[in-house]
Protein 1
Amino acid sequence: MERNTGLIIAMDVTRMDRAVKIASEVAECVDAIKVGYPLVLSEGLSVISRLADYAPVIADFKVADIPYTDELICEQVFKAGASGLIVHGFTGEDSLKACIGVARLYDGDIYVVSEMSHPGGAKYFQPIADEIASMAYEFGATGIVAPATRPERVKHLRSIIGDSLSIISPGVGAQGGKASDVIASGANWIIVGRSIYNSENPKETAMELVTGIGI
Ligand code: U5P
């Protein structure tokens, strides 16, 4: 993914027409559109190719299965036109390798969740976050997902993965994180959903966020 603005929109609306409208409004402010279960379960996998007309699409399916099933899932996602896919790492090395193997066939990106951004995300993730981040580095993932709600953790995880992997970071706005803090802590992109798509003027809000990122 090319880093022009540092902003990824999380498109967690449940209607295709609304998603397309917002995508067309914010396209020039975002480097990617993240879609997840809310939109895909509601409108089908074809949302990926539809939104890819506006910006590269990252599918946030937090893939977490046995290697064989992971491969089948990854194939569907990349075949549908996604440029990137978010997967879990706690399922182990073999599962992660399976996802990365399929992504390579499609020239796609794999981002591994290292620690989740919500309050409950710290308890079980923090004890294993370092190992997950190291594994992401070792097996050649594109990057990790780290919490904008805990910039100090982003800084710590950056020290583990070095500069070659990307950090994409959700939790700015509705979850309380601040764009400038998390970028200063080492994130390459912030992921923002509600603050943008629930805004009266999504484009203006996206532009303000881009200013806060300050690339
Ligand atoms: N997301 C998080 N935290 C994580 C991993 C993923 O918030 O640790 C996702 C959410 O599922 C949502 C987006 O799609 O990032 C954040 O949206 P919002 O809180 O800005 O509305």
Protein 2
Amino acid sequence: MSDISTRAREILQRVGAGDPFTGDGALHARSPIDGSTIGRLTPHSAGDVEAAVGAAHEAFLQWRSVPAPVRGQMVRELGELLREHKDDLGALVSIEAGKITSEGLGEVQEMIDICDLAVGLSRQLHGLTIATERPGHRMMEQWHPLGVVAVISAFNFPVAVWSWNAALALVCGDAVVWKPSEKTPLTAIACHAIAREAARRAGAPEGVVQLVLGEREVGEALVDDARVPLVSATGSTRMGKEVAPRVAARLGRSLLELGGNNAAIVAPSADLDLTVRGIVFSAVGTAGQRCTSLRRVIVHESLADDLVQRLTAAYETLPIGSPLEASTLVGPLVDEAAADAFVAAVEQARADGGTVVTGGERVDAVEGGTYVRPAIVEMPEQTEVVRTETFAPLLYVLRYDTLEEAIALHNGVAQGLSSSIFTLDVREAETFLSAVGSDCGIANVNIGPSGAEIGGAFGGEKETGGGRESGSDAWRAYMRRATNTVNYSTELPLAQGVEFL
Ligand code: UN1
């Protein structure tokens, strides 16, 4: 057994997940670090999904009556357990998703942060009192638990995305059924064991968290189940376009976090040192496999040559290799298909008249792993390949002359997740943040588009799907709103002055 496999197994034991492996299961848990199989798992069937939703629904019927601040105790326990197991979980994220150590730990920290937010929120799920037009009446709104929430998550944030949804859903009084990416089952098994322990410690109903593993048919069974009022799905736009109509066909709700094609405008006044650091982290961090990764730089003509030169110099020093090595900044892509897509996009960009300034090829950093050299490609225009999200460290550079032109290029893609401008000019910054500026759900000044904190609402427009998760008032998506009018008078005045009986 390889070191990686042994390490993953030890972590699973320590977090209370035991030994989930079966000798001949159809689901292979593997590591992109060296392409090795860690172990095999048995995927769930459509029937198992039905049973999981049934158990979650039963748990929901009890959980909805537990006072919200008491529900918060379960999420507090979850946060405590995550703190305790932070190093192990972070290492498992590195092993299974290929993130460098600091980013694996950062992802677990993101889970801890959302737990803290949700615990506070458990005392703040408040509605409004609204003035009524009728004497002796009171009108108000209440937020009630919604039901069973399905969470479909992607490989690149294998645990944080679940936590954003689950921590909020649980304090909101919902039960959660999680279908992780088939590429990252082990981190899900680990978190699920931790969440069950949190439920046990807090005295929450056992079935309130459920995990279903598998591929497409498992997701479909979940999406089609009428007992699931909300499907929160994170992944590709292609996946979202399949999920949304199926959920809509039964008039369920979906919360979609789909692709991004995030850009940074670099204006003439930009602080270039800061800009270069911001760009490199956003474009190369997580090997370009964040939905918020920077994919397009739109730079003013006057500093384009200087910027490209500095970026190239920075790219050429980036250590590529095993994410378990402390010095590595660029880990592997998730699998062969991802590396093929990267190489194919670079080729297409070249065919479209682009100039590959640096990178763009496979690297044999660790035998069996899928490593690439991050690429910068100067493009004469925003061709189709630039408008397509390639989930890899591939950065296109486009030049502009006027801010209007830059914003038009910026918004000229189908996705609308995250965005940024580097400028010291307050007029430019505010224009970018205004109604005629960035059309994305996230717009930043002097930081890159990735690495959002959990306090803000997270999500985007257009083909990103419109959903909002995490902070601000995103919790409302996990509840149902009831408007209540109470008549405490002896009369029965009708609204709008209607006379009757
Ligand atoms: C994702 O890639 O699916 O803003 C989520 C960020 C992280 C979350 C990314 N906090 O980059």
Protein 3
Amino acid sequence: MASNSLLWFRKGLRIHDNPALEHARKDSDHLYPVFIIDPHFMEPDSTAFSPGSTRAGLNRIQFLLESLVDLDSSLQKLGSRLLVFKGDPFEVLIRLLKEWDVKKLCFEYDTEPYYQARDNQLKDYASAAGIEVFSPVSHTLFNPADIIQKNGGKPPLSYQSFLKLAGKPSPPLATTVSSLPPVGNTRDYEMLRVPTIKELGYGDISQEEFSPYRGGESEALKRLKESLNDGQWVANFEKPKTDPSAFLKPATTVLSPYLKFGCLSSRYFYQCLDDVYKNAKKHTSPPVSLMGQLLWREFFYTVAFGTPNFDRMKGNRICKQIPWNDDDELLVAWREARTGYPWIDAIMVQLRKWGWIHHLARHSVACFLTRGDLFIHWERGRDVFERLLIDSDWAINNGNWLWLSCSSFFYQYNRVYSPVSFGKKYDPKGNYIRHFLPVLRDMPTEYIYAPWTAPLSVQTKANCIIGRDYPKPVVDHEFAIKECKKKMGEAYTLNRQMNSSASEESLKRSK
Ligand code: FAD
């Protein structure tokens, strides 16, 4: 009897270092590589603040479709192809498993709560139906569950303690796939190729929302190679020292969207870095090195996996409870790049247009929205990032918003990024602002970061009247920062009191 395997792609959109693919192809007469367009992520939403689905903006959807086209093309070179379906993944899979008489089901392990729930449901079905399931950890360097177990059942809450537990990851798979078993009979299915964004019901992607980053494994490997070519740059890489305003040639690798979709294996990336370090006289180390950045990713995956309600304030035991404001007008001004602070607004335009911004740019706007100026809930900012980033990643995005809002991991709320002077350090002439906010193109350099301070005659000459062509600041930073620090101080005191009465209570109960 024929032995049929089904490989369900979700992330892990690659051929290299793909243990699920490796296992699926072994001893199989037919292999069905499947991707399911899940309405949970992809249903068009015309009420959302920017074109796209409820959870994803057009740039990320486009990036995903390009990654699928590339995957399909690679599979075709190996004698196979990608089969694309649309619908609830559980229902689609049950149908396919039955119709194709599948004996082996393979998919990459995923730590996100949404996939955990789905995957458990699917595993239960498969085991009852006598189908073998293989679900390896290959999205991350380590299995978060192993690290948590080594730490006595709790996730490590600092990067340094994480590093001590983590050790060295296992290497990527050494095998190169040269051919795949053929796809079996797939008749009777309507949609079997990668759709265009238009076919998905989104209309054309406009120039407004056009990211310069193209999706796919081929692009990921090319980008990795280009990044690592300069061994000196890799060996000297120090994260906080990179320039957030460099946009023509970003100061970091921009490999995050490829890691997010698994177009690039993190283990392969790690191994390549290790090789560069071996050939360098000296190199930087974690947390600031490039390898250190990959380990930040692991750190957040581990904490996210081991922390119930990681993506919210309420019910999240590692998150400070802070009485954030709920001011829709300010939130929208921030989201729509209308705060009146050019550094903040330029970043928000880049985010919307490109779907990627530098780490310190993320710091600037996240701090501004939360504890720096507007005192708006980090979950609201997280939602905007989740939608607009092409690298939007559940564990990393939530982890960094917790960090930046001083809700967890980092608690020095007195250290605030100035929306005026921070960017100036890197880009004194304001080229970044002039590019992303062309309305300020002719503003003289001395006013580019604070155009409301320019005399009216200067504004007139620059063709930009503040309050008419570009907004006045939505808050006075000097005033806002004092208010925010006061509120943070009060919230921290309250959290301390709540924690000490909670521990007294539990002490009493244990006696
Ligand atoms: P590089 O500096 O070249 O680093 C290489 C890789 O290391 C990155 O691709 C990424 O996978 C990982 N990495 C780097 N910095 C971090 C970090 N601080 N935490 C975890 N992993 C890291 N990154 C995402 O991938 N997805 C997100 O949704 C996301 N949301 C963020 C939200 C906020 C508020 C902040 C402050 C940061 C967020 N980051 C996120 C982390 C970081 O900004 C990006 O990973 C990084 O800027 C991506 O650019 P790069 O690939 O050039 O990074």
Protein 4
Amino acid sequence: NRRWVLASRPHGSPTEDNFRLETIDIPQPEDGQLLLRTVYLSLDPYMRGRMSDAPSYAAPVEVGAVMVGGTISRVVSSGHPDFKPNDWVLAYAGWQDYAVADAGTVINLGSHPDHPSLSLGVAGMPGFTAWMGLTDIGQPKSGETLVVAAATGPVGSTVGQIAKMKGCRVVGIAGSDEKCRDATENAGFDLCLNHRDPDFSQKLRQACPQGIDIYFENVGGAVFDAVVPLLNPKARIPVCGVAARYNNTDSPQGPDRLPAFISSLLKKRIRIQGFIIFDDYAPHFPAFRTMMAEWLRQDKIYYREDIVEGLEQAPQAFSGMLQGHNHGKLVIRVAAD
Ligand code: NDP
């Protein structure tokens, strides 16, 4: 039983030295518990926050403890009547081959689920994040302009596609021309701009001749700076994440632009609200799962997965994601089905 533990807290971008691969005995479940074998491990940006002990909405992973993470696992042995050996489950088993979980903490996907890894992406936590943040906070209306960055990730891609269903004009932002082509040609975005383009700000202005009504905030940083002057009166900003900042250990340099931003919130009556998906919206998850399963059956939603083979690749793949090396939902295939 291999497992990745947090070896030390990163300063800046995580390196291999911040993780340690250990081998331990396979744990034994008690009554009401399940022994799970990981098939797919989800790697998500929030894990960078768990590696740090800075105050946050969730407790950090302790140094020496196994890295947390969502998984698609199979039941090896069951101490609960609702689960049989070989059932597939959506669990939170972490960066390891085997884990013991309380039956109440996992979702049973049955014995032959269709495309189980999607429950880590478009049909799972990231897709749910896109749906709730966009509809509850973004409140999209037909004819409005929506901008979203990390446009080919599982959150951004789903935000853009649901906004299209709601009749919005959707401008994506991504880190390469290839990603931008994917967003327009496959996900149906109206336009997508590469944030590494030296003329990015100017191109964003040209891309949004009617201004921006909804900015779904995934990244912060230079993208945010380019968006702010284009916001329309009564614009909404669901603050989902600030991926451009997760590796920053210091405050950004330069003049303090916060007072000017607050002043534009006032003058334009802009509404900005952060959210933490399961803290704020957990009761809606089953309804979202049913709705998204139907959309997927009807081919209404395009998704892309970036599947990396082998648990040993997890640290490198994770650091790469924070720099945009992934294209689509990043998943580690830990074991064959
Ligand atoms: P992604 O798979 O999209 O990965 C993160 C992406 O961020 C990278 O691929 C990269 O894409 C982009 N990025 C990184 N640095 C920068 C930068 N400096 N400027 C612009 N873009 C950058 O991740 P997810 O879809 O899983 O998550 C998207 C966001 O949603 C994250 O901020 C995440 O933390 C947040 N989130 C929040 C939740 C909540 O409850 N609030 C729940 C789930 C996710 P590119 O190459 O295109 O630049």
